[in-house]
Amino acid sequence: MTDLSPLRVALVGNPNCGKTAIFNQLTGSRQKVANYAGVTVERKAGRLVTPAGRRVQVLDLPGTYSLAATSPDEAVTRDVCRGIYKGEPAPDLLVSVVAATNLRLHLRFMLELRQLGRPMIVVLNMIDAISKQGLTIDIPRLQAELGVPVVTAVGIKRGGGQNILAALDAPPPPPPTPLPEGTDLHAEVRRLLALCVARTSERKQLFEDKLDRWVLHPVWGMLILFVLLFIMFQAVFSWAQPFMDMLDNGMKSLGDHVGALLPDGVLRSLVVDGIIAGAGTVIVFLPQILILFLWILALEESGYLPRAAFMLDKLMASAGLSGRSFIPLLSSFACAVPGIMSTRTIQNPRDRMVTIMIAPLMTCSARLPVYALLIGAFIPARHIAGLFNLQGLVLFGLYAAGILSALVVARVLKRRATTDEHPLLLELPNYRLPGLQSLSIELWQRARIFLSRVGTIIVTLSVLMWALSSFPAPPAGATGPAIDYSLAGRIGHLMLPFFQFIGFNWQICVALIPGLAAREVAVSALATVYSVGASEADAASQLAPLLSAQWSLATAFSLLAWYVYAPQCFSTLAVIRRETGSWRLVWISTAYLFGMAYAASFLAYHITRLISG
Question: Residue 509 annotated as binding?
Answer without folding.
Answer: no
